[in-house]
Each structure stands twice: as structure tokens, then as C-alpha cells.
Design brief:
Blueprint lengths: L1 E8 L3 H10 L6 E7 L7 E3 L2 E3 L4 E10 L4 H12 L10 E7 L17
Antiparallel strand pairs: 1-5, 1-6, 2-5, 3-4
Helix pairs in contact: 1-2
Amino acid sequence: MKLITAIIRESKLDQVREALIDAEITRITVSHVSGHGQQESIDIYRGKKVVPNLIPKIRLDIAVNDAFVDITIDTIIKSARSVVDGEIGDGKIFIAPLEECIRIRTDERGGRAI
């Protein structure tokens, strides 16, 4: 099991969500977050550099069984990329091992709980 975390542009949420549903990945968690990486805007105010503004983004958390990792990643990349080669600010994907998953309602554990 893996936990896939994707940070994407706000404008791409519907497109990514629809693509994930088409790929039969229907269980996701969506959060509104903000931050900055390479897509920072350095403003100069009265001759001084101002700290970059935090840019609003969307965070997707998706727990998947190992068989769905590549499908999920490919789907996010294809649907979140803004142009053919992409551009700064399209986002990032993080993959972490998921030690355990427990469905509270039924006490199912592991891959069956996802």
C-alpha cells in the first residue's frame, strides 16, 4: 500500500478528479493548501525585496494498493500538466509507504480497507 500526495493547481482539480474517476480511483481526500516553490513571485516594494506570497494550491491524498500506484501517478500527471511539456507551478507528487489502513466502520485492515 502507498499514500500518494499530489500538490496541483486549483484550476486543475475538476480535471484531475474526473480523470481519476475514469481510471476507477474514486477514494480521494482534497485539501486547500498554500505554499511556494520555484513558482515564486518576488516583489520589490520601495526598493526592497518582499517575501514571496504563498500561492493557493490543492492537495490530494490518495491511499492505493500497489497495483494502482502507476495508474494513479500517470493519471495525475496527464490531467494536471498545463501544457505538453509542463511549466513551473504544475505541482508535485509524493509517494510514501502506507504501513496500515483501517476502516473504522468495519474494522477491516490493509488493502481491503482502502
